[in-house]
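Running this now, will post back.
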Amino acid sequence: MDLLIDGYLAQTFGPRDAASYFARLLRVDARLLRPTAPQEWPHSFFITSPAVLGIPPSLSINGQPAWLLDYAIRQVGTVVPQRPWSPRHSLNRQSHTTSMKMPIFFVHEDRVNLGLPLVKAVAGDREALLGAGTAAPLGNCSSTYIRINVGVLSSDTMRLVETVR
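Update: finished.
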């Protein structure tokens, strides 16, 4: 498995933007990372080096602290391509420049399946999620903003697409 090809982040943002994210997060060239997948966490990408400052490790692999970077893509569900967010105006770039945070995954207790159906999230049903009662690894802050790009096709756009076919 290759982190920059088979991972959810690479599938979501593309290999180049995923590499840029890991490089900013870990302050190393992402191509030099040698992730490992421990038996108890199948389909995952963990690193033991470099250490992620300010974030407690997810687990220990062969006595070394390890951090979860990503999961290998599985042919279940849909990965919605995204562009990394950046401020529209250069004046806002400095005020929005922050340190990168570790990725947050909604992982089931089986450590294989990912995601939480919207119906369950709205109902507050999170029992199947690993660590549902613990805080997400946000570093020294208690909350964060998450931006997800969503494209919606109008009926006029759908007619145009059908006409072009």
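The helical segments are 3-6, 8-13, 15-26, 90-96, 118-123, 155-164. More later if anyone needs it.
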